[in-house]
Design brief:
Helix content: 55-70%
Number of domains: 2
Number of strands: 2
Largest sheet: 2 strands, antiparallel
Shape: globular
Radius of gyration: 19 Å
Length: 272
């Protein structure tokens, strides 16, 4: 799903997100009932030494999921159906879903470093930004939606219902992962993976948008061992300046290669 397409759907139908959330709720409720009835989850019993092996893989998985989710939000996987399937799967890892990630990321590019940028860390320490990223995303998204549809009483009711269902869906996705993986894998694989996704997204948005006297300087970072390792697993995630220059590159590091220069589209917001 392209950000521009989602934007048009939200603009044309002010209940679009609510209906999307309700569909997700129904689907997840059915899957949870099936898991409870069939007991098809993994439910592996893991010994303590195994935890020290699986947690690093969980973190690496989280970094890969972050890259795939980001790329699918830009339709950077050529097959449209495969792009959506991968995006939906990755959206379950961040708990708030693929559609919401597309909306948030669209706003980030459309209003980069401005008030309606949901991941603008201006004026915050990294710890503050890291510990409550969803709160800022929800706040900016609500401002955007109210700006689009107005703050009349009818839309406020829609927004209230939408907010309730959104948070219920967070819980349902969490329950699904618990039923699928079982207690041990949920604690040792899902939780570290989830934390690594949240942390890397927060760090990229925080560190790559450098505040200067002249404004915000978007940067590429690859100057130490951490960035080199993180760029390997996120497929160039910290090449954030390159990404803002050309959002159609699966790996922004390719912008450094001569074969990519013909693809450059500065200010390519309309191609989200």
């Amino acid at each position: 799903m392209k950000g521009s397409k989602l934007f048009r759907q939200i603009k044309a139908d002010r209940t679009y997100l609510l209906k999307s959330y309700l569909k997700d709720m129904i689907l997840m409720s059915v899957m949870i009932l099936l898991f409870l009835k069939t007991k098809a989850g993994l439910n592996l019993e893991l010994t303590l030494p195994f935890a020290f092996i699986i947690i690093p893989f969980a973190v690496m998985n989280g970094l890969i999921i972050a890259s795939l989710l980001h790329n699918t939000s830009h339709n950077n996987i050529r097959n449209t159906v495969f792009n959506r399937v991968i995006g939906e799967y990755c959206g379950y890892w961040v708990l708030y879903g693929y559609t919401n990630f597309v909306l948030i990321h669209f706003l980030h590019h459309q209003y980069s470093d401005e008030e309606l940028d949901p991941v603008n860390p201006k004026g915050m320490s990294f710890i503050v930004f890291l510990t409550a990223p969803m709160r800022y995303m929800i706040r900016a998204a609500k401002k955007f939606l109210f700006k689009m549809h107005g703050q009349n009483s009818d839309y406020k009711k829609i927004m209230s219902a939408q907010t309730i269902v959104f948070h219920l869906n967070l819980l349902l996705r969490l329950i699904l992962w618990y039923l699928l993986l079982g207690k041990s894998l949920f604690l040792l694989f899902f939780i570290p993976g989830f934390v690594s996704i949240v942390a890397v997204f927060a760090h990229i948005n925080y560190i790559c948008h450098k505040q200067t006297e002249k404004g915000v300087d978007i940067q590429n970072l690859n100057h130490n061992l951490y960035y080199k390792i993180a760029n390997f697993f996120t497929m160039g995630g910290y090449y954030h300046k390159n990404h803002h220059i050309n959002m159609r590159l699966f790996d922004p590091r390719d912008l450094e290669k001569s074969r990519s220069h013909s693809k450059i589209h500065i200010h390519a917001i309309n191609r989200l």
